[in-house]
Design goal:
Structural class: mainly beta
Helix content: under 10%
Strand content: over 45%
Radius of gyration: 16 Å
Strand order of the largest sheet: 1-2-3-4-8
Shape: elongated
Number of strands: 10
Distance between the termini: 40 Å
Oligomer: single chain
Order of helices and strands: EEEEEEEEEE
Number of helices: 0
């Protein structure tokens, strides 16, 4: 398994996962300790094999150190098949009771040629209320 990292990007076995984040002010209420965020994931298949994303596991940690785990099939209701050189992009979101937190995790993918399953890392990324550190 090969790993490469750069800011908000991680490559595992030829599959690159890139993350972009946004704060959603319209869905946030600091008075109610509810901070909303969106994230855009780009999964690019730079390997020689067609793969299918089967499931995901997210680990979310808020600013107080409280951890929650989210697991499930596919992403936003899909289990995309990604051919070599292609990519799959999706947008999802989460919320925290604190003005910032972090997310990390992995996908379980299957190589279509031989049905072999493998993990693809998702880079650690920070979600933060834009004015919290000023």
């Amino acid at each position: 398994m090969s790993l490469e990292t750069e800011s908000n990007s991680l490559t595992t076995s030829g599959i690159t996962v890139k993350v972009e984040t946004n704060f959603i002010s319209e869905q946030t209420s600091a008075q109610n300790a509810h901070y909303s965020f969106a994230y855009r994931i780009t999964i690019q298949n730079n390997s020689d094999y067609t793969v299918q994303l089967l499931s995901r596991k997210w680990i979310l940690t808020d600013a107080l150190g409280k951890v929650r785990t989210v697991e499930g099939k596919g992403v936003v209701g899909k289990q995309p098949v990604i051919a070599p050189g292609e990519l799959h992009v999706y947008v999802s979101g989460t919320n925290f009771p604190t003005p910032f937190g972090k997310m990390e995790g992995y996908y379980i993918m299957k190589r279509m040629l031989d049905e072999q399953e493998f993990e693809v890392g998702i880079p650690v990324f920070i979600l933060e209320y834009p004015f919290v550190l000023n």
